[in-house]
Fold this protein.
Amino acid sequence: MFIADFHIHSKYSRATSRECVPETLALWARRKGLHVLGTGDFTHPAWRKELKEKLVPAGDGLYALKDEYRLADNVAGADFTPRFVVSGEISSIYKKNGRVRKVHNLILLPGLEQAERIAGVLEALGNLRSDGRPILGLDSRDLLEIVLDACPEAIFIPAHIWTPHFSLFGAYSGFDAIEECFGDLTGHIYALETGLSSDPPMNRRLSALDGYTLVSNSDAHSPANLAREANIFATGLSYPHMRQALMNRGTKEFYGTIEFFPEEGKYHYDGHRDCKVCWQPAATRAAGGVCPVCGGKLTVGVLHRVEALADREEGLVPAAAKHFESLVPLQEIIASSLGATVASTKVRQKYDHLLQNLGPELFILREAPPAAIEAAAGPCIAEGIRRLRAGKVDIRPGYDGEYGIVKVLDKSEIELFSGQLALLNEPVAEAAATCRREPAIPAAAAAAEEPGREGEPGQGPAAAADHPYGLNREQWAAVAAGDRAIAVIAGPGTGKTKTLVSRIAHLVEHCGVPPAQITAVTFTNKAAQEMRSRLEQHFAGQQVAGAMTIGTFHAICLRMLSQWRGKDGVTLIDEDTALAIVEEIVKSMGRTFPLARR
């Protein structure tokens, strides 16, 4: 199988990144794990010239970047060469059946020669040089005819068919039926691009779409947005194979799509961006389409338009329905999992680190083993990707040109998963989670005191008979808990050390955790010695306690540093020495040293 993203733009389109050049697009295709990407903007003469300069035919209607333009990047497993397919989007604005229509169409071609031929015809009808996505006063049906006359093998796809202002079914300037748009040439349309603000379940509500292959593309205006939506093919890597797969909807040659969650699209709900009004269709209908703040018209979103044209209830899955996967871009998952912004340095660095250690983005989101993700990214991001794969994401829907906002973890969850679950990422917590969970103890029962003996309340004969290791109910609940992080609040004399020792024994004896993978950290050397002594007594003659790492935080870290740097490579200094060093540094900078030594 391979993944293709046909609809992108070059630096010659308005509101696009200057990085949309062949070498950077190819780099990001490797970073994403994208095997085929559109060139975009084939009608623009300067872009065609650049494509001819930097691409070389790769056979079967596809192109590859010339070796001298390949940018280096150390993404794991991304040593493949992405293929380009000639593509472009054209905006048609024209009057038909008494209304102004604004429809965008995506065109795929088997070569730059055909692009040159079509551009030559269109240049006589409008300005192709001012924008990579030209605006022509040309009926969509007539544009299709021109394309087919110049290249019968062309693939003509109505673009983002639900976008309110510029699409086939757009609420403000589109049509209610495909035949109304393309007339006698409708039979030459066999694929439709559904756009970011809808997904397959929404499109399945229209029986009129059953005869079309529904494709998804990124419509990327910057390289980093490649493959946010894409297509999965189970066929040969060639233009003829892709064309046949799109035409043969009943086969598995076109396997399915990678989708945005539609709520993240910027026209999913109705609303008015200036007034911060974001509504579901029912609320818009109840208000007569009027903004309650300013009294202006609300922008009708994709969900509203789908409901208006739908002839099926939600949930129906046609027999020929294709596979689809809903994803969120990896940088957004990282940002949400860390409580940061997508543009932050922290997110960018983590993104690069994951690509270097795990592989391309789509592999990480779709296939990478959870344990490998956690080892490379930490528990927060691993949990974010787990929730993504399970479809458990919270999205504030997009509306009136505003993208939706994704949240996979809230602040309290980030704090929980960011806690010290295991020193040096050891898998103790994971093994503990596989143990049998004990039922939760009701608050009232947990608050009740049990008879105890001196020095360890609650450890009387009754408690010892009821729970392993001679523990009371509360202590046993802490020892046997299967949660990844456990907070135990206990006062003096409540048996904290006994509970910790029993927890370690339980991990070894019942959860299968190797003793060498257990680290027990205390605040004082006395507490560490007491814990080691009790564990040696518990595992008498088994050499178990000796395999564990037990000590204060400072002692354990000093041992680790010594192992890393060698015994003579680490020196501990006291407070006076530290102040003396700081004083010398400050004086060398020509400053006074205000600190007083104690």
Summary: The longest helix spans residues 496-510. The two ends are 70 Å apart (CA to CA). The chain has three domains: 2-267+313-323, 329-419, 424-565. The mean pLDDT is 88.
